[in-house]
Structure formats: structure tokens, C-alpha cells
DNA sequence: TGGAGTATACTTTTT
DNA sequence: GTATACTCCA
């Protein structure tokens, strides 16, 4: 028997060794799902199946990368590079680049990211003269996206009684029309949004028997990761692709289905067994990740859900520590408690920063943790921010590149037609759009034939110059690689110089980002990897396609020794020694938006199940008594999910039994926790000093980015510890010229007061943080002296 | 045309 | 509270 089989348990072996015919693997959390998938692929190859005939689809680039690496590790050599492993979106996009012409799209189609897509929706709404208060672009876009994911065409959408009733009730009956126009507009622009990558691929297979047959023959073995997260579009594609050989292997866990709001449906798991005559079903129920305590708690939690495939997770791991339930007085206290606990665990149990994760329901919760971690000089990485490629200056340069690849790309054109400023103002642009719409041409075509459209002489000249410039860039494409073109564009548009001349901190950062972009294009061009063994496309088009499909998580090093902060959604598939599940409060988690139906609540519960099962050794569940939500202080009840945990597995000694104990909580949570440890450790302040010795001083605006800060932290605030007994003065007492103290920004002087009386503001020049505009209704200021 | 001043939004969102 | 988007005026 091959070596790679030896490390598997019986169920896992079954899953790996079953080669022919459909198989569904129900893989509980931490049951070695990735191991099974990768070993299975290795086994297929060892059994003589050509790597070119294997397709493996994941949801994230990260998962795809990890899978590839692990297979390479098992097999050695470089056979694995011929495998088709990637995300649904990237694999389909790659195929569509070869086949798009068959469904009327240009092969060099642009991929619109969510921002581009919303911008198109907005343009459509404006052109239809609809009220954009009622038709909010992002809401309309979400609706369109849901329709696409459910394979509901504009025509279906318009005629579906139930859907129409919904829109009419929401007073937005025109969405069907917007949807239709949106699709037509994207088509005209030669662009596909993320959903289109799935949808158009489906269309291709559905309407082109040759294409279908080609890819059915190519992909003789298909494997799908995270099957519970697939939507109807993905489901249909898999069904079509797999119809010929029926060698489809899906791996999923219904208990971890947390993306129904993106169109995912557990139905796909249930349906799978009906789609084929004989489906082998394997359940992986042994957990190798967590302690018994954590597994028992997780089982109890998920047991409260009605709809699920029966299974019980078990583990042979040690019993482990009890789950700590921690109540804090406020969101900031919660942050402080977590940061203190991390510091303490590191010192007592020799954990590394990267052993910790702070997981929360919403991104807005990250602030308190960031502040607390920074104060303690604990390095961290926050996920869920904007991708590098979403930054304004990056998108600007990329827009030029997009336009020269695909002149129909209107979003790109609009973005840069007057940036850097060249005298094509709003009036002119509106006129171009109008002309384009009335003549049914693209904006670019109007520009090219501008002479016929009666522009003023001066305007005509700048338009012609613009057209000439873009054309000169396009002509470079044949003989130059992506880097050479991008460099040339940056230089000749004056875009780089513009940023270079901006000497503000932000301007400097932007300039550096552009340099980084150019470097990364260069790297990409020079990298030798030849995925799929096909001819490597180092052209600009391939590059653009690739970067649109990257997220901020792809830019971060998961192995960096930093504490990880992310939403629970983002944490699915990951594991950590120590996990802080934060903000376990009613209305936050479960979220207020998701408690109206049983289905919604069950999804929230699955989310809780996911966060619990991320922990290997230690789990904290924290909640705050009060929390700022949208600038308002609100009281919170502890989450119902806490009560659903079996009491005997909990340690509530950190929680305080209510207000009585919390009155004694004078110091930081850290001091409270450590009062019983018998000396040696005297409190949070000392911890901070200690950390300072180890990591250097806390970040300040003047210093260069300290190495422990994540690279993307642009906003640096010098931390200020408020004076003891800080008492804020009344807003009415404040006046220009006064010296004041702000709890976060420190000491400063009021230079100016402004704003309406109901919303007064003060411009304050701070000693360490520069000038800031402070909203007095929210900020608390103490008059000094 | 661009900057300041005002309005608005904020659940998750793998791509 | 904060980040971003829009509007309006100079």
C-alpha cells in the first residue's frame, strides 16, 4: 500500500480509494477534509489518471493554493502543476478567455469587480431617471446578484410573480428593468461581473454542444470543495460537466453552511444523491483538531438546529480546558480583556502571536481589538479590508490598462478620461454618454469619431489627444509584456508624476503603492510558473483577469507571527490554538437582521458552530454589556448561544455574576484575571512596558512603519493614555484658544469652532497627532489647566 | 473644477 | 464614531 494511504483512518481511506462513480463526503469540522481531498487527487494520479483530466474547484484562492502545495508534497516532482485546481471564478474565467466569443463576448472581456458593477447599476438607474434614494445601487446590485446566482434571467425575473410582488411591496418595481439594462450594458462593455463568470460559463456549456463535450472529455474527474456553499449556478455547471463520466466528488459539511445570503443552498447536498443512480456517501466524523470539551460543546450547539444531515463529531484528543465565558462592561473593555489575555497566555504558556485569533460577527467590531492590541504592542493582521487592487490609485492605473485591452470598458474609460486632468469635464462626459446611448455606440467609439459630433474646437482637440494616446498604448501590446506597457502608461499619462509631486503622507503612500503595483506586474511577468502546462500568457489581459479575482486575504502571509483578526465567515476552514469568539450579544450575534425566521437563526447558529470549532486548545467566548453602535451607546443582553452551551463545559469565573461583581472591577481585565496568580505579574501597565521592551515603542506618526504593524496600516495614531479621573467638560464650555485633552488623540489646542449649533465641531491641533476635526456631540474633551 | 461642507450608511460577502 | 459619497459654492 502506498505511503500516503497509511496516515488515514478507515473512513478517510474509503473516501480516497473510491475512484469510479459519484461520491459525497460529509466532512465534519476538523475531520481532515483537505487531507482527504489532496490524498484523493494524489491517489488518482498514482492510479494512472492524467493530471490534465482532473479538475478541482474551491471557493478561495488560498484553499486552491494550499491544495496544490499539499499534492505536490505528496507526489514530489512537478506532475501536480498540470492539475486544474482553482476557484470556480478563476477556472471559469480562464476557460472563458478561450471561449467567450462563442457566446458573443470578446475573449479579452473585462472582469468587473463589485465596485465596477455597482457603478454600472448606478449609471443605469440615473439614465432611467429613477430615484436613487429608493433605488440604492448596492441594494439593487445585491438583488441582481441573487437573481444571477439562482439562474434567474432578466426575463424570468420580470415575469416571476413572487419576485415581482416582493419588489412591488418594497416600492421598487423597476428593478426588473434595471436588471435587464444592467446585463445589456455589461454585454455592450464587453464585461462580466463575478456572477457572470459562473453564469456565462453555464450558458456556454448549455448552448454549445462542442464546448460542453470538450470540457466533459477534458475533466474526467471533478472534485468540489466546500460543496455546501455552492449556489444553483455552480451546481448546474458541475452537473453538466460531470454528466459524461459521473466521476464527481463533492466534499462539504451542511453544519458549516454560512453563505446562504450569497445564494448558497444546502439543497445542493441533498439533491446530489438524487442526481446519480448510485452515490457513495462517506461521513468523516472523527475530529483531529479540537479538545473533547470543544467538540462536545460544538455538538450540543449544532444539535439545536432542526434541518441537518445527522452526524456526531467525536475526538480522541484530550479533554482540555473549559470554555471561558467572559463578560465585560463595554466593547473597549472587551478589547482590552482580549489583548491582556493574549499577552498573559503568551507569557505563561509560550504561545506565539499566530496561535491566536479574534473572531467576530461584523467587521465594525475590529476597532476595539485593534486599539487594544496596538496599545500592548501585540502585532496583528486584520483581514477583511480593501484589497490592494481596490485602492484608488491602483484602480486608476489599472483602468488605463483595462481600456487599452478592451476599449468597450466604459467603467475604465469614465474613470480616467479626465484623470490626470486634461480638460474633459462633466459637461463633455455627459454629452459623450448621451451620444453613445442615442447612437447605440460605446463611449470610445464616440470619442474616435468625435469630429462628427460638434464638440467645441478646444474640447475636440483634447479628445483627439486622448484617443491618440490610448491608441499608442494599445499598439504596444503586440511587442511588449504587461510590465513594459504598464510602466510606459504610468509615465506617459503623468499619473506617476502627479502622485510623486504630492508630498503629503497619503500622497507618498499612493506613490509607493503604484511602485509596488509596477513591481508586482514585473514579478508576475518574470515568474516562470506554467500552470496547466499550457502556453503561459504573460500578456496584459491575463494579468488583469488575475488581479480582479484576488482579495485582501491573498495578499497577506498566513504564517506571519501575528494575531489574526477577522469575521467568522472569513475564518471558515482555518484553525487556531486559541480562539476568542467576541461580541456574543443578542442583536449582534445572532444579528438583528437574522432572527426573523428559523432558517436565518439556524444559519447564525451554524456560524457559532463554525467559530467554536476553529479552536484547537482554548476557547474564550466574550460579550460586552454596552457597545457603541453607529455612534450610539447601546445595552446588550448576552447571546442566546451562550446559554445553548452545556453549563458543565463552561468556566464563568471570569464573567462576574452580574453588576455586583463588576463594580469591583477597578483595573483592567488583565489585573482582575491575574490577581489570583500569586504575584510575579502585577498588571496591564507593566505588561505594556514589557511589550515595549520586546517590540519597541508603540507606533507613532513620525516613525516609519514599525515592523510589527501590518503593512496596510496607513492611519497611525499615537496612543494616548488619558489622565487619571478624566472628566469631560460640557460642549458649551469649549472655546477657541483653549488647551484640551482628548482621550485618544491627547493634548491639543482648539484652533477653530464650526458647524451648526446642533452639530458643533472643533478643529484641534494636537501635539502628537496633527490637526483633527472633532465632532463635539461624540468626542469628550477635558479643558486643561 | 475642485475642495470643503454636508449627508448618509453601517451584517455576513469566499469571487 | 467613522468612512465615504454627494453637493454646492467660489
From TrEMBL:
PROSITE patterns: UVRD_HELICASE_ATP_BIND, UVRD_HELICASE_CTER
Binding of ATP, residues: 27-34
Residues of the UvrD-like helicase C-terminal domain: 292-573
InterPro entries xref list: DExx_box_DNA_helicase_dom_sf, DNA_helicase_UvrD-like_C, DNA_helicase_UvrD/REP, P-loop_NTPase, UvrD-like_ATP-bd
Chain residue ranges for the region called Disordered: 681-716
Catalysed reaction, written as an equation: Couples ATP hydrolysis with the unwinding of duplex DNA by translocating in the 3'-5' direction; ATP + H2O = ADP + phosphate + H(+)
Protein's name according to its UniProt entry: DNA 3'-5' helicase
Listed Basic and acidic residues bias regions: 686-695
Enzyme Commission number(s) of this protein: 5.6.2.4
Alphabetically ordered keywords of this record: ATP-binding, DNA-binding, Helicase, Hydrolase, Isomerase, Nucleotide-binding
Organism: Niabella yanshanensis
Origin: domain of life: Bacteria
One matching Pfam family: PcrA_UvrD_tudor
Group of enzyme by EC: isomerase
Family to which the UniProt record says this protein belongs: Belongs to the helicase family. UvrD subfamily.
Amino acid at each position: 500500500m502506498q505511503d500516503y494511504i497509511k496516515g488515514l483512518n478507515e473512513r478517510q481511506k474509503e473516501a480516497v480509494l473510491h475512484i469510479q462513480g459519484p461520491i459525497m463526503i460529509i466532512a465534519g469540522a476538523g475531520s481532515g477534509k483537505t487531507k482527504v481531498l489532496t490524498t484523493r487527487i494524489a491517489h488518482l494520479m498514482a492510479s494512472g489518471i492524467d493530471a490534465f483530466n482532473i479538475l478541482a474547484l474551491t471557493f478561495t484562492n488560498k484553499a486552491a493554493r494550499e491544495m496544490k502545495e499539499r499534492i505536490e508534497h505528496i507526489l514530489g516532482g512537478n506532475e501536480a502543476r498540470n492539475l486544474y485546481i482553482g476557484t470556480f471564478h478563476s477556472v471559469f474565467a480562464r476557460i472563458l478567455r478561450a471561449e467567450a466569443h462563442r457566446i458573443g463576448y470578446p475573449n479579452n472581456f473585462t472582469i468587473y469587480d463589485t465596485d465596477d458593477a455597482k457603478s454600472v447599476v448606478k449609471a443605469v438607474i440615473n439614465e432611467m431617471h429613477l430615484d436613487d434614494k429608493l433605488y440604492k445601487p448596492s441594494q439593487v446590485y445585491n438583488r441582481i446578484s441573487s437573481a444571477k446566482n439562482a439562474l434567474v434571467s432578466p426575463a424570468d425575473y420580470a415575469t416571476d410573480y413572487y419576485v415581482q410582488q416582493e419588489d412591488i411591496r418594497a416600492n421598487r418595481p423597476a428593478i426588473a428593468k434595471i436588471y435587464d439594462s444592467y446585463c445589456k450594458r455589461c454585454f455592450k462593455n464587453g464585461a462580466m461581473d463575478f456572477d457572470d463568470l459562473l453564469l456565462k460559463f453555464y450558458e456556454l456549456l448549455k448552448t454549445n454542444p462542442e464546448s460542453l463535450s470538450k470540457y466533459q472529455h477534458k475533466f474526467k474527474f471533478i472534485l468540489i470543495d466546500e460543496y455546501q456553499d455552492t449556489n444553483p449556478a455552480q451546481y448546474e455547471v458541475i452537473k453538466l460537466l460531470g454528466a459524461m463520466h459521473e466521476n464527481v466528488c463533492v466534499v462539504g459539511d451542511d453544519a458549516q453552511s454560512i453563505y446562504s445570503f450569497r445564494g448558497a443552498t444546502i439543497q445542493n447536498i441533498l439533491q446530489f444523491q438524487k442526481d446519480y443512480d448510485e452515490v457513495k456517501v462517506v461521513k468523516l466524523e472523527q475530529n483531529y483538531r479540537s479538545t473533547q470539551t470543544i467538540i462536545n460543546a460544538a455538538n450540543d450547539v449544532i444539535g439545536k438546529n432542526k434541518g441537518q444531515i445527522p452526524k456526531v463529531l467525536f475526538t480522541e484528543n484530550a479533554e482540555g480546558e473549559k470554555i471561558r465565558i467572559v463578560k465585560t462592561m463595554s466593547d473597549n473593555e472587551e478589547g482590552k480583556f482580549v489583548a491582556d489575555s493574549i499577552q498573559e497566555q503568551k507569557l505563561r504558556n509560550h504561545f506565539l502571536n499566530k496561535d491566536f485569533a479574534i473572531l467576530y460577527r461584523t467587521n465594525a467590531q475590529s476597532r476595539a481589538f485593534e486599539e487594544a492590541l496596538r496599545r500592548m504592542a501585540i502585532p496583528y493582521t486584520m483581514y477583511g479590508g480593501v484589497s490592494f487592487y481596490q485602492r484608488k490609485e491602483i484602480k486608476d492605473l489599472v483602468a488605463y490598462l483595462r481600456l487599452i485591452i478592451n476599449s468597450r470598458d466604459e467603467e475604465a474609460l469614465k474613470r480616467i478620461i479626465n484623470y490626470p486632468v486634461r480638460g474633459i469635464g462633466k459637461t463633455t462626459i455627459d454629452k459623450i454618454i448621451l451620444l453613445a446611448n442615442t447612437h447605440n455606440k460605446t463611449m470610445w467609439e464616440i470619442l474616435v469619431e468625435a469630429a462628427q459630433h460638434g464638440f467645441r474646437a478646444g474640447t475636440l482637440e483634447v479628445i483627439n489627444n486622448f484617443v491618440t494616446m490610448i491608441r499608442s498604448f494599445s499598439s504596444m501590446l503586440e511587442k511588449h509584456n504587461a510590465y513594459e506597457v504598464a510602466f510606459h502608461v504610468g509615465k506617459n499619462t503623468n499619473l506617476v508624476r502627479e502622485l510623486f509631486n504630492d508630498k503629503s503622507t497619503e500622497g507618498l503612500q499612493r506613490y509607493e503603492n503604484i511602485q509596488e503595483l509596477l513591481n508586482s506586474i514585473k514579478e508576475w511577468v518574470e515568474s516562470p510558473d506554467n500552470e496547466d502546462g499550457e502556453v503561459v500568457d504573460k500578456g496584459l489581459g491575463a494579468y488583469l483577469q488575475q488581479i480582479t479575482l484576488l482579495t485582501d486575504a491573498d495578499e497577506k502571509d498566513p504564517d506571519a507571527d501575528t494575531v489574526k483578526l477577522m469575521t467568522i465567515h472569513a475564518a471558515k476552514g482555518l484553525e487556531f490554538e486559541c480562539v476568542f469568539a467576541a461580541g456574543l450579544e443578542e442583536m449582534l450575534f445572532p444579528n438583528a437582521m437574522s432572527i426573523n425566521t428559523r432558517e436565518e437563526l439556524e444559519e447564525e447558529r451554524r456560524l457559532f458552530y463554525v467559530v467554536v470549532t476553529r479552536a484547537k486548545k482554548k476557547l474564550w467566548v466574550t460579550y460586552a454589556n454596552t457597545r457603541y453602535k453607529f455612534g450610539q451607546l447601546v445595552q446588550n443582553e448576552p447571546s442566546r448561544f451562550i446559554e445553548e452551551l452545556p453549563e458543565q463545559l463552561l468556566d464563568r469565573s471570569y464573567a462576574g455574576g452580574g453588576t455586583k461583581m463588576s463594580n469591583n472591577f477597578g483595573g483592567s481585565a488583565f489585573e482582575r484575571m491575574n490577581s489570583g496568580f500569586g504575584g510575579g505579574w502585577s498588571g496591564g501597565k507593566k505588561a505594556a512596558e514589557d511589550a515595549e521592551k520586546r517590540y519597541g515603542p508603540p507606533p507613532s506618526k513620525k516613525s516609519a512603519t514599525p515592523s510589527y504593524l501590518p503593512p496596510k496600516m496607513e492611519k497611525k495614531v499615537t496612543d494616548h493614555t488619558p489622565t487619571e479621573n478624566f472628566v469631560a467638560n460640557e460642549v458649551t464650555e469649549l472655546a477657541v484658544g483653549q488647551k484640551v485633552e482628548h482621550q485618544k488623540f491627547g493634548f491639543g489646542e482648539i484652533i477653530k469652532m464650526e458647524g451648526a449649533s446642533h452639530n458643533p465641531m472643533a478643529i484641534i491641533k494636537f501635539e502628537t497627532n496633527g490637526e483633527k476635526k472633532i465632532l463635539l456631540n461624540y468626542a469628550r474633551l477635558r479643558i486643561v489647566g
